[in-house]
Amino acid sequence: MAGFDKVVTSYEEALSGLSDNMTVIAGGFGLCGIPEGLIAQIKKMGTKGLTIVSNNCGVDGFGLGILLEDQQVKKMISSYVGENALFEQQLLSGILEVELTPQGTLAEKMRAGGAGIPAFYTATGYGTPVGEGKEVKTFDGRPYIMEPSITGDFAIVKAYKADRFGNCSYRHTAMNFNPMAATAGKITVLEVEEIVEPGELEPSQIHTPGIYVDRVIKGSFEKRIERKVLSKEAQ
Question: Contact at 8 Å (CB) between 18 and 24?
Fold first, then answer.
């Protein structure tokens, strides 16, 4: 059983093999459910020319946003980019290439890539700049555009608990894009709050089977709140 143990003890080992110009798929939504330590390790490594696939690029100074500071990201494939001033500056100056993708389409691109499906049809984006240059087919009288799926050289994912075989569960809204991202990487690295022994996770609560996971590391998380809003009564 030792050969199935996927736990690593250092972030260097967790991201061993990551190099310039690779594609990295990152789980998370805003700052919720992001693999904070793995992102910090990419920053530390100084890897450049990266294509990052994620719902967004974090915020200035936290999350994936820290990878913009040294211009490590060449291209972002995202569905929302409105919380990061540096992102805006790099986009407008031509430093950063951005492929805006509808949120549901982005999730399906990851899921389809992980399932070995090379492309799919969706009505979302037809007749807009999103659909320009893409193949169109009509089903039941409605036009659909063909969207290619996405896979990455690495997928970095945050989970709540995992066992040593990589079976894991996510907690509440921190699930978000993580299950789809976990399936779509050639190498999937899981950063977790707690590592348990095999058999401790209730089988029905395993959201991502370990077959998709290559490395597991226990992290510590700041879990920063992206935007705190209080009611007038609470203020």
Answer: yes
pTM of the prediction? 0.93
User: In 20-150, at which residue ranges do the beta strands (DSSP E only) sit?
Assistant: 23-26, 50-53, 73-78, 97-100, 119-122, 136-139, 142-148
- The structural domains of the chain, with segments of one domain joined by +, span 2-119+147-218
Q: 63: Cβ–Cβ under 8 A, 6 or more apart, which residues?
A: 28, 30, 31, 34, 36, 39, 57
Measured CA to CA in angstroms, residue 107 lies from 21, 28, 79, 119 at distances of 23, 11, 10, 13
Distance CA 166, CA 188 (A): 10
pLDDT digits (tens, 9 = 90+) for 131-169: 999 999 999 999 999 999 999 999 999 999 999 999 999
CATH number of 2-119+147-218: 3.40.1080.10
Beta-ladder partners of 136: 145
| Residues forming beta bridges with residue 75, ordered by sequence position | 51, 97
**From CA 36, how far away is CA 165, in angstroms rounded?**
22
The three-state secondary structure class of 5 is coil
Cα dist. 182→74, 92, 150, 159, 214 in Å? 22, 31, 12, 10, 10
Surface-to-core class of residue 226, CB atoms within 10 Å of its CB (0-12 exposed, 13-18 middle, 19+ buried): middle
